[in-house]
User: Fold these one by one.
Assistant:
Number 1:
Amino acid sequence: SQWGEENLQALSIQEGEDVTMNCSYKTYTTVVHWYRQDSGRGPALIILIRSNEREKRSGRLRATLDTSSQSSSLSITAAQCEDTAVYFCDTGYQNFYFGKGTSLTVIP
Amino acid sequence: DPKIIQKPKYLVAVTGSEKILICEQYLGHNAMYWYRQSAKKPLEFMFSYSYQKLMDNQTASSRFQPQSSKKNHLDLQITALKPDDSATYFCASSQEGQGEAEQFFGPGTRLTVL
């Protein structure tokens, strides 16, 4: 991927555990988007973080952005079964190249 | 009401035939995109349009032709279909010119080529 790449491809965790997914990108950006894709559906934005923010929270989600290392992370606290999905990051610039995504499975 | 409509939801075609995938967005966006996703594969960028003009084409084959008859429409014509074309095709849109450029995706058209 030219833009966003996830470092992990598959994660399986127990319900209630915390999980972190990482993403690295190769070019300058002012924003990183995190999307989730449920089975059989298109991706949907869940959180975005701007370059002037080191951390962004939304409910149980927490995104971080380190522009110096060109990396971002998405953490989910106390994962639930409904968090099972594929998670992508994207830098939101003109051409959108999503990485392979991280397939998260939360086991009850 | 759905903001991005893709039709049909499922499509079965025979090898060598031609099909058109429909996409309409009602978000007032000026940029539209097509992606494809094969089973258990990453989302693959195909085309981007801005103000009804082609901005980027990452599809190697000329068998894939986007068509924009209206500013909120971006259809995808696929000719000489092959079994390898079987995938789910997603349409998306965004408001270009805004720094965040969040994309909104349609529900997809699942194409099966026999």
Number 2:
Amino acid sequence: GAGVSQTPSNKVTEKGKYVELRCDPISGHTALYWYRQSLGQGPEFLIYFQGTGAADDSGLPNDRFFAVRPEGSVSTLKIQRTERGDSAVYLCASSLSTGGSTDTQYFGPGTRLTVL
Amino acid sequence: GNSVTQMEGPVTLSEEAFLTINCTYTATGYPSLFWYVQYPGEGLQLLLKATKADDKGSNKGFEATYRKETTSFHLEKGSVQVSDSAVYFCALSGSGGSYIPTFGRGTSLIVHP
């Protein structure tokens, strides 16, 4: 089957605009993660879903960031009032089980967000 | 808090050379340790993992041994190929009851023919 997909692959927006980034996990994967990766850095955790609920959103930097997963599959990361500092690659990953420490996460190709 | 420190890149090698990429970590308890690889234009993918002390993870000729006494998980390969050129990320999870992974900054590997 297909891997994790993310759309769009690139998004350019203006400061202050609203953006939505979409993640399609591997079918049947209950755990879904969002990360942000800045240039020259490793992925930085944002939020983790187990099914439909956000099990851990401690990595969201502020209340401009929000994510949903209403049916337990596709997830959308929403950023309000974008700032230039939000420019980064946003990664999504999914895993089969319950987010245990040994789970293998499967990553999507990422969405490159540029805020002008 | 948890942290992962990797050697800075880029690491530049000739084909068939021996590779070591150093990784050390700070964590409580007994985390699981991972190496991920990101080939140009592709997403991160798991290369290997080890879940307890003295375990050795291996895949595609790469190896790493979980050394709790030195809090290290160095990545090695005996003979690199041009196709190994990529960015390699060391990561941990499962520290202090948290399953949220912590990643290092990544080390770029460039292999010349």
